[in-house]
């Protein structure tokens, strides 16, 4: 599909065909493409909890204010941000040296820079949410391009999800995405015009 058409036709779909079951291969293909999203130092702060089991979806629905689409979609995905992504700095430095992005003797400096940047807990959280959000948008656009519908969700109790699904403390539930076959027939809500959302140079 033409990219501009993907953007224009993507909708937040609330109702799904419960008879459609997506395969792991289909879901993982979407994830693979979505994971080409950008991230600082290529640390890739995202992780996905993918729930397809019917009983597990019911449990997740309870953590999401009982919204029916959570259990009706083929998969409900909790997009997580990793607070410890910076700990992969060594892997990044090694790959960058192999590809000639940094000289071999520059690996330690790169690692030190990354660790220094992530010393602040707020920075770790901001980057985890930022990375997860970039990947989430890519996931939704990829799904649309492959003929599937999605809906981003913030209506859930993150701590309830953490407890119910044993999510490690370093992973933050940033948002949820329902995924499956469905369509939105209502007219799209209006968008603010460029003149309302652009400021050039300075305020």
From TrEMBL:
Pfam families cross-referenced by the UniProt entry: Nitroreductase
CDD domains noted in UniProt: MhqN-like
Domain Nitroreductase: 7-181
Keyword Repeat part of the UniProt annotation: no
Keyword hit for Oxidoreductase: yes
Key words, A-Z: Oxidoreductase
Record family assignment: Belongs to the nitroreductase family.
PANTHER family associated with the record: NAD(P)H NITROREDUCTASE YDGI-RELATED, PROTEIN DRGA
Protein name: Nitroreductase family protein
Source organism per UniProt: Terrilactibacillus tamarindi
């Amino acid at each position: 599909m033409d990219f501009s058409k993907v953007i224009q036709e993507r909708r937040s779909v609330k109702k799904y065909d419960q008879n459609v079951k997506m395969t792991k291969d289909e879901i993982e293909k979407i994830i693979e493409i979505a994971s080409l999203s950008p991230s600082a130092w290529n640390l890739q702060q995202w992780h996905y909890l993918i729930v397809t089991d019917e009983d597990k979806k019911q449990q997740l629905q309870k953590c999401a204010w009982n919204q029916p689409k959570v259990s009706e979609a083929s998969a409900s995905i909790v997009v997580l941000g990793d607070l410890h992504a910076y700990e992969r700095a060594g892997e990044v430095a090694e790959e960058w040296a192999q590809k000639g992005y940094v000289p071999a003797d520059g690996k330690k400096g790169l690692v030190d820079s990354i660790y220094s940047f992530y010393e602040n807990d707020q920075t770790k959280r901001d980057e985890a949410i930022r990375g997860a959000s970039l990947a989430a948008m890519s996931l939704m656009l990829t799904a649309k391009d492959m003929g599937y519908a999605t809906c981003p969700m913030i209506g859930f109790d993150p701590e309830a999800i953490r407890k119910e699904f044993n999510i490690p403390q370093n992973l933050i539930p940033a948002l949820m995405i329902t995924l499956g076959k469905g369509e939105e027939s209502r007219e799209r809500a209006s968008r603010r015009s460029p003149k309302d959302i652009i400021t050039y140079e300075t305020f």
